[in-house]
Amino acid sequence: MYINRLAKTAAAAFLATAMLITASPAQAHPAPEGPSSASSDLFPRFSLTPGQAMELQRQIDQQIAAAPGGRQISQNEVAYDGGHAIVTFNIPGRTGSPASSKVAAPDAVTSDVNGCPYGDFTQWNCVYEFANFNEGTNGRRLQFNECGGRDLNTYNFRDKTSSWVNTTGKKVHVSNFTTTGSLVLLWEEPSHSKSSQVTPANDNKADYIDIRC
Question: Coil, strand, or helix at residue 176?
């Protein structure tokens, strides 16, 4: 069970990361300068064929065009909000949701849950575009590491959540906007929990996420 796995790995994870220098939030999640969309050759991370690299870059370019304000920080990641929100793309030819790069989650070098980072100093809430954590798809993962609420439209992710992972020690509320603009709770995520498929009634309806600290 995921909750037990986190408990068992927590001590080992702390030892593995205890020697890291604690950085300020701005240092820990940089939004590097440079073009918002660049050739994947500038971000070597995965070994891809030219066709796979072009397809992945096309998805990155579409993301930045649909949700302005993001910056490409790796071959398959776009950062928003100074690096506190990350959109991660699956890798062509590979299965499963990829773990975050060290640029995206520098402290979470010890563990991940279906690609969602887990570290001793920073945990994340992750939502996935498809069921089963995007397994076997080209789906995106959107992840946050700060408390508070966010409109998923900012990241081109409104009405696009089918599964989720919460590696934080906090409760997370996921809500839908009504036609009048008010919020209706769809589901609550307990700390250190996950779901491979939201209920049919709530599938692709998430509009707003609130990490409640």
Answer: strand
Query: d(Cα 101, Cα 97) in Å, to the nearest integer?
Result: 12
Which tens digits make up the pLDDT trace of 61-96? 999 999 999 999 999 999 999 999 999 999 998 888
pLDDT at 110 over 70: no
SS3 86: strand
Measured in degrees and rounded to the nearest 5, phi and psi for residue 3 equal: -60, -40
Q: What are phi and psi of 132, to 5 degrees?
A: 55, 35
Contact 188, 139 (CB under 8 A): no
Local structure of residue 99 (DSSP, 8 states): P
What is the amino acid identity at position 167? T
pLDDT for residue 3 is more than 80: no
Q: Enter the tokens of residue 87.
A: 């959109």
User: How is residue 92 written in tokens?
Assistant: 């062509």
Residue with tokens 């949700």: 67
